[in-house]
Design brief:
Layout lengths: L1 H9 L4 E3 L4 H6 L7 E2 L3 H10 L4 E2 L5 E3 L3 E4 L2 H16 L1 H10 L28 H9 L7 H8 L3 H12 L3 H19 L4 H7 L5 H12 L3 H8 L9
Parallel strand pairs: 1-5, 2-3
Antiparallel strand pairs: 4-5
Helix pairs in contact: 4-5, 6-7, 7-8, 9-10, 9-11, 9-12, 10-11
Length: 236
């Protein structure tokens, strides 16, 4: 298969991949020195296995001209629509989008929607109670001193043990927990951004929007549009 891809590439054939198909193109050497993407969950592995490839985990697709790669399966549809637009124009692409019941306006640079899970903590860890306490108190102002006090440790000792067991800092964990709470509220409630900012413990709606976009890769409004609960249609 790899040799067939190399031969086709040598003839100038345009070759595109969907999701982890990027691994096949990379194994054939077709992506060396180029930017590429794949599903976010496999991006780190792709980068480690093929260091000559510039892996971009935060986009829907990458068009290098002859070689194109896309993120997950849905992003593969975006890539296909992009190729239709490039070859036949926007009008034909719009017809294809309508026939496929898909959005035409998503562009390749749009961030993948990544589920940011918290790092695992070993069961029975001394940190479990304080992490539960953080989750229960996200709406209030929480300091490093507050977290350390929950464990009966000095701030310095708490920070060191926290990083040893989680691989991150207490404050970074707190920020991720707040973003996760905001994601949940955007998905399951119709609360406004200002209210969600307060419920998740952000100091202001502006700070919330900036942090959310930095972590998730899109705005709270765009995230809700994609993942928020849809109202059920009424019978009759």
């Amino acid at each position: 298969m790899l040799e067939a891809l190399r031969v086709a590439a040598g003839r100038g054939t345009r070759i595109a991949s969907i999701c982890v198909g990027a691994f096949v193109l990379a194994a054939a050497g077709l992506l060396d020195g180029l930017a590429a993407t794949t599903h976010w969950i496999a991006a780190e592995t792709l980068a480690k296995r093929f260091p000559l490839v510039e892996v971009r985990p935060d986009v829907l697709y990458v068009d290098n001209g002859q070689f194109l790669t896309s993120a997950g399966a849905a992003a593969g549809l975006d890539l296909c629509l992009h190729m239709v637009r490039r070859d036949h124009g926007s009008a034909v692409a719009a017809d294809a989008a309508r026939l496929s019941v898909m959005a035409l306006e998503r562009e390749g640079g749009q961030a993948q929607f990544i589920v940011h899970e918290q790092p695992p903590v070993p069961r029975g860890s001394a940190l479990e109670p304080v992490l539960a306490w953080i989750e229960d108190n996200l709406g209030r102002d929480i300091t490093l001193a507050d977290m350390a006090a929950q464990c009966g440790m000095s701030e310095r000792t708490f920070s060191r043990r926290f990083r040893e067991q989680t691989g991150t800092t207490p404050l970074q964990w707190l920020l991720r927990a707040r973003v996760r709470r905001a994601q949940y509220l955007l998905e399951n409630t119709d609360h406004g951004v200002e209210r969600i900012a307060g419920q998740a413990g952000f100091g202001s709606p502006t700070a919330f929007r900036e942090r959310f976009k930095r972590v998730v890769g899109t705005t709270p409004q765009a995230y809700r549009a994609s993942f928020g609960a849809r109202p059920r249609a009424r019978a009759g």
